[in-house]
Design brief:
single chain; eight-stranded mixed sheet
Length: 363
């Protein structure tokens, strides 16, 4: 992010909170590359509230701040499984829906799925949703693996013989164990949302076998790397990969990027706006949420980031290459093949974290 919407240190954040008059600013902590910056300026103009907008690129970073308390943020955007665990931990305050008249714009289909993490939709509203899958530089991958390369299959990235060859042109994986480990389980035909440590352990040899061929584990750098042709495959989030596709097209650099939700099944995830229990300006936070739930504002956000959103009323304002793209708004058959995961218990989460550290380090 540019301008004043840059990442601030925790020290600076604390100082700002101490010196700012309550109600004059709203502090938002959202994923990187995840909003049209014109909307931030529009919010300030319409409300007269100063908006401080910081970014992160992993749920683990956000959760560390939330569980420590005193983050200083008024609105944060956790993914469903992390939202579920953080609600249980008392991190968030219930929404005052009387202050959210635009909540009537929300999509009941998505609200129903998010209620798995937030029963009754009491603590959060959906911002964006999507799938996790394969970003492919079609030319380079076919040069390396041939015309019959399994570009729509988990075989592409979980079979060592493929990854060994793809390493020549570069592969990035998400630095997101709660997404990569379930995907490896799906590849094995196991239940991706298993909470059984013995089942989860089966993912380790799959990931360990291909990890040496992964150029980088990172949750945002693959966007530009794919678009620039620096890598040929990314296991990442649908909208990010579609941003890569469009950046490459705009640059007219000869890079052709495609996104595939793996045919074996892809993770369906939900990023949701919530208000911390200790938010300095909860009234301002509600104003920001209501602003974002305006149909035209949410459409502008989706048109910019190429992700589907949970706002039904926004759909009439979506660009055709967003609402009409089945990689963004999947068809019914694809939707039926998507899976969701629940949050892990603290004990199982420790197993996941240790496994992921071991996989990445190669020890």
């Amino acid at each position: 992010m540019t301008m004043k919407y840059s990442l601030l240190s925790s020290i600076a954040a604390t100082a700002l909170i101490a010196t700012s008059a309550l109600g004059e600013e709203v502090r938002v902590y959202n994923w990187s590359d995840y909003i049209d910056e014109d909307l931030l300026q529009k919010f300030e103009k319409e409300t007269g509230i100063d908006l401080i907008y910081d970014v992160f690129d992993s749920n683990e970073v956000l959760e560390t701040k939330m569980l420590a308390g005193g983050s200083g943020y008024d609105v944060v955007v956790p993914t469903g499984t992390f939202l579920e665990r953080q609600i249980t931990a008392g991190v968030f305050q219930k929404l005052d829906k009387d202050k959210l008249p635009n909540i009537t714009n929300m999509w009941d289909v998505i609200e129903d799925r998010v209620s798995k993490y937030d029963p009754g939709n009491e603590y959060a509203v959906n911002y964006m949703w999507g799938t996790t899958g394969l970003g492919v530089n079609m030319t380079k991958v076919k040069e390396v693996l041939g015309e019959d390369a399994p570009v729509d299959s988990l075989d592409l990235v979980f079979k060592p013989e493929n990854m060994e060859k793809l390493a020549e042109c570069g592969v990035h994986f998400l630095d997101a164990p709660t997404e990569m480990i379930p995907a490896a389980l799906k590849f094995l035909g196991e239940e991706p949302q298993s909470q059984d440590p013995d089942v989860i352990a089966k993912a380790e040899p799959v990931l360990t076998a291909v990890a040496p061929h992964v150029q980088k584990f990172h949750s945002s750098e693959y966007i530009n790397a794919l678009a620039n042709g620096d890598i040929c495959v990314a296991f990442g989030w649908s909208g990010d990969i579609l941003q890569s596709r469009d950046r490459a097209a705009e640059a007219d650099n000869g890079v052709e990027i495609a996104y595939y939700a793996p045919k074996e099944g892809a993770l369906m995830w939900f990023d949701n706006m919530a208000i911390p229990a200790d938010a300095p300006n909860p009234d301002g936070a509600h104003k920001f949420l209501n602003f974002m739930m305006d149909a035209k504002n949410m459409a502008a956000a989706s048109n910019y980031v190429y992700y589907a959103n949970g706002n039904k009323a926004s759909q009439e304002f979506l660009a055709e290459d967003v609402i009409g793209d089945t990689a963004i708004y999947p068809d019914e058959a694809t939707l039926e093949n998507l899976y969701t995961i629940s949050s892990y218990s603290p004990k199982v989460q420790r197993v996941i974290t240790r496994m992921w550290t071991k996989i990445k380090s190669g020890i």
